[in-house]
Structures are given as structure tokens and as C-alpha cells.
Amino acid sequence: MRGIEKVTGATRFQPPEDGRAPGVAWVADVLVRGYAKAEASLGGEVCQAVPVDGKGRHRLTLGFAIESETQRTGEHSESGGGHYWEYDLGRNALALSRQAKLFFDCASVRLAGLGRPVPVMAVVSVSGGSDGDEPELREANLAVIHSASLAMARELGCTGGGGLPGRLVVRQRTARTVAP
Question: What is the pTM of this model?
């Protein structure tokens, strides 16, 4: 995947420590169980990409959560108070050179039913990533998170793919207004 290679600076990665990665199916089950109990879920980490050669490389982590309704009503909390660049993807997408967040709504029989969309949040973080403002790194983070979110939407059975396009088209909505 070119997005992971771009943000980590690596092409070869270590296998998961326990020999297997939790994966999308496992985290989807965690989200479903958590939503059934509390109508929110911390979800979990889907994967880590740890470069074999750590010299000058960065570790990437990717996870999902279901937001509670009170979190969802504060769309301004999603925009990070102007700390992120905002993109027209899903309900909202935010990106920096070292992190991206994607918010989408999932109407699914596995969650609240087809008539009630549930807010899902995906986060990709790059440890030791650039504090700079490189558009190509923001777009690489968006590519990683879009691909993973499509897989999660399929696994959860979200109608209409959670409103995510099948192919990533990067369209900036607003520029970052607060400097790092």
C-alpha cells in the first residue's frame, strides 16, 4: 500500500508481536458488542505497521471507535478547533502530516438497525511523524484511513458503504487555521 509506505518511510514491516493482527473483523465485533452495551465503543486497534528498519522510519497505528451521540453532536470537536485540515470525505475527514481522522455514519443491522446511522470514527497515527505540513503526507494518511474505513464499513454491513466513495478523491474542505 503506497499510503503506508509514504507515511512510514518503509517498504518492509515486522510481523505482529503475537504472530497475528487483530484485524478488521475482530475490531468490528468489539464495536458491535460495545455499542450493544453502551451505544458507544472504544473499539480497538486494527493494525500496526512497524518498519523492519527503524532508522528514520515511523510506526503507524490504525484504530476505530463508535462515538456516543453527545460526541457526535459537537461537529466542532471533530474539526479540532482549526488544528487540522478538513476534507470532504465521509461525514468529515481531518488530516495532518502525522495523523488523520475519518468520521462516517453506519446504518447496519449489526448496530442500531438500518434506519438509525451510528457514528464511527477511524484514526490513523504516525509515531514520530512529521510536525510539518506536507500535503502529500496528509493525502497518504487519508488514503490509509479511507481504505481501512471501507473495509470496516463492509465488515459492519453499513448501507451505502457508510457514505464512503469506493475510490478516494481528495477534496479539501477547509484549511488549517491554527499553526502547530
Answer: 0.83
